[in-house]
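A note on notation is needed here, since sequence and fold are reported together in a single record. The reader may check this reading against the record printed directly beneath this paragraph.
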Amino acid sequence: MTHPPRPPQPPYAQPYGPPPSYHQPPKPHSRWPLIIVLVIVLPLAVIGGCMALVFSVGSRQPGGMGEHTITFEVSKAETDSTAATADLTWQAGSSSGEERGVTLPYKKDVKVIGVVPRVSMQATS
């Protein structure tokens, strides 16, 4: 069995205009903005979050952030009855002081502001 002959195909039309051009692939994006975010912005956000957490803890606890009264008290040692005076150096928060030749027993109240103020005292006779 034979197939009947097909009619001739018309020739392909020639395209008009210049030949099609290929699109260039897009340029890769710069990584500098990502590096800046990771190196600068992210640590600042972490530090800010930690600070917010620390300061919010003081407002949630009784006796937290606010004014506190610190009492410094120095007395004679039971074994040393000759010590009648002492030289004192103290620091509470941003307040500090130095007193020479105070009579013992000694007591001083200092008001400080903060969540956990730093307090120190040194007494020498």
Observations:
- The mean pLDDT is 78.
- DSSP finds one helix and five strands in the chain.
- The beta strands are 67-74, 85-92, 95-103, 106-113, 119-124.
- Residues 4 and 77 are 129 Å apart (CA to CA).
